[in-house]
Amino acid sequence: MKIKINFPGVILIAILVMCGCSKFDMPYINLNIPVVLNSIDSISDSSCTITAKIDDLGKDTILYQGVCWSTTPNPVYDSSAHLLSTTNGSPFSLCFKGLNPRTTYYVRAFAANDKGIGYGDQITITTPAKSPFTYGQFYAGGFIFYIDSTGNHGLVCDTTDLKDSVQIRDTLNNLVAINYYDSIQWRTNSGADTSGASATAISTYTFNVDSFNTVRIMALDSSPHNAASICFNYRGGGYTNWYLPSKDELNNIYLNLTARGIGNMSPTTYWSSSNYITTTNVNAWAQYFGNGNQYYFNESFYLNVRAVRAF
To answer: Which of the four, 30, 43, 103, 283, has the lowest number of CB atoms within 10 Å?
Structure first.
């Protein structure tokens, strides 16, 4: 008598035996619930804004979506504080309020279909101290776009883009005209970038690491016409400590000002002070303020510039 053997079944049984479990012990993973992607836009002493989208809608209708948060890990829609979006299935941005200052919260977006609820990756935030300042407030020569954890210090960006100016003189050195240019090079000379201007983080009022970036760029390129020099020599509002913002600072300007319709930033690309060196190219980071995407460009490119300072 011939015996027909189901090889895939034999293999599965062998695996279960090796693992010391039965098929009833196998974890159940629902692959049909929504896949949610989420990120934090901004945080204040009492509120937080989260953006999210459903990565793959598939064929199932989204019944509800929103954000949930808690002071304990893994918040869930059913038992944690939550806020629902007014639209279902579309990308959404929600600002939830009533948070306590200097408190750690766990946050994640969610979306539900008839198969269950899907959650985004948990994000841990700590609200800063209660502050007399708000994003977009005009203070200390510019618009506030960052407030540190003390609530008493932060960063502002200037109200307008900086311009490069070139004097035109005749053969007798008399000033004939001054030409102004909206776009400025990160550096005006060529060669390897040995500046070490690689800091990307947000600076503090005690040690302005990104101002250090600016000084290093100026040491690499002594021309007064590069982006760092133009920011460093700026005297807007009577202040002298302006500098070219880092990659992360530039992104905070977009999130905390431009996305709120504040700051008068043009829908174009702005230089940061953070370089980006590859094996074949000398580049620096920049950000397009039409949609907030960050890119790197050759340092000789002409882009817009906005100065920032700490207070």
So the answer is: 30
Flag whether 29 is in a domain: no
Nearest-angstrom CA–CA distance, 108 and 38: 7
Helices and strands: H and E segment counts in the chain? 4, 19
User: Is residue 165 very low, low, confident or very high in pLDDT (cuts 50, 70, 90)?
Assistant: confident
Instruction: Look at residue 88 and give its three-state secondary structure.
Output: coil
Residue of 269, 263, 266 lying closest to 295 (CA atoms): 269
* Domain final residue pick, 126, 144, 163: 126
One domain for residues 162 and 281: yes
Phi, psi at residue 255, to the nearest 5°?
-70, -45
How is residue 205 annotated by DSSP?
S
Residues 150, 267: Cα–Cα separation, whole Å = 32
**166 and 111 belong to one structural domain:** no
Burial bucket for residue 15 (CB in 10 Å: 0-12, 13-18, 19+): exposed
pLDDT tens track for 26-63: 444 566 899 999 998 888 889 999 999 998 765 579 99
Is the CB of residue 226 less than 8 Å from the CB of residue 218?
yes
What domain count does the chain have? Answer: 2
- Cα–Cα dist 6/290, whole Å: 59
* pTM exceeding 0.85: no
The reported pLDDT for the residue numbered 281 is 86
Q: How many Å is the maximal CA-CA distance in the chain?
A: 113
Q: Is 114 a domain residue?
A: yes
Phi, psi of 81, deg, nearest 5 = -60, 140
Shared domain for 115 and 159, answered yes or no, is no
Q: Give dist(CA 25, CA 226) in Å, integer.
A: 65
One domain for residues 42 and 90: yes
3-state helix, strand, coil in the chain (%, to 5): 15, 35, 50
Which range of residues forms the domain containing residue 56?
36-126
- Indicate if 223 and 290 belong to the same structural domain: yes
